[in-house]
Amino acid sequence: MPPAGQTPGDDAVAIGSDEAGKGPVLGPMVAAAVRAPPDVIPDEVDDSKRLSPATREKIAETLRAREDVAVGVAVVPTDRIDAPETDMNSLTVAAHAEAIAAVARDGDAVTTDAGDVSESRFARRVREGVAAGPAGPTVDVHAEHGADAEYPLVAAASVIAKVRRDAAIESLAAEYADYGPIGSGYPSDQTTRAFLRDFVAETGDLPDCARASWSTSADVLAAAEQSGLSEF
Fold first, then answer.
1. Gap between the Cα atoms of 207 and 230, Å rounded
2. Predicted confidence pLDDT, tens digits, the chain (232 residues)
3. What fold does the segment set 14-171 form as a domain?
4. For 176-231, which CATH superfamily applies?
């Protein structure tokens, strides 16, 4: 299904948006928006998870180098993710809206990877979020699950977001090198879990890069406390 205001084969400028890092226990979430004529997107663009790091870097550099491509990025740090007054659905909406608003013009058609079980609700909230920003452009938003695998502009945004997220993880890896490798930052990554356990064992607390509100973080703290009690 084409985005609102766009028909198949239409080469009019449009916007795609996606995010990376919604589920990890370490590091920020990053949303990105790409505004471009669809026919300028590199042929190798795909859902960022299907591409190698080198290919993602190459695509991101190509997109940023083009004068007819505009890129917007929004970074949501761990302290904002942990804030009790918000939730990940709202933060995902806000991040998409911020990234889109950075490049959008009135009347633009936007296709976004739905970050909510309800595609229509996500589209409405993102549209309202864009309009509520300082520039306040009015855009048409179409949200769809798996859009990064179907729409080149959304795939391009997923690549930009993933590259920015990976750069943040590389920076954190250097910052916490004394505590061992941090892995990908995802809860399922045993390297990440080992890093958290070792950091807590050595310092008694979570690193600032960890999302303290995640169950993984709570489990690590609870295990460390239990270990301390058994030793006592």
1. 24
2. 344 334 334 468 999 999 999 999 999 999 999 999 989 999 888 878 888 999 999 999 999 999 999 999 999 999 999 999 999 999 999 999 999 999 999 999 999 999 999 999 999 999 999 999 887 899 999 999 999 999 999 999 999 999 999 999 999 999 999 999 999 999 999 999 999 999 999 999 999 999 999 999 999 999 988 775 344 2
3. Nucleotidyltransferase; domain 5 (3.30.420)
4. Ribonuclease hii. Domain 2 (1.10.10.460)
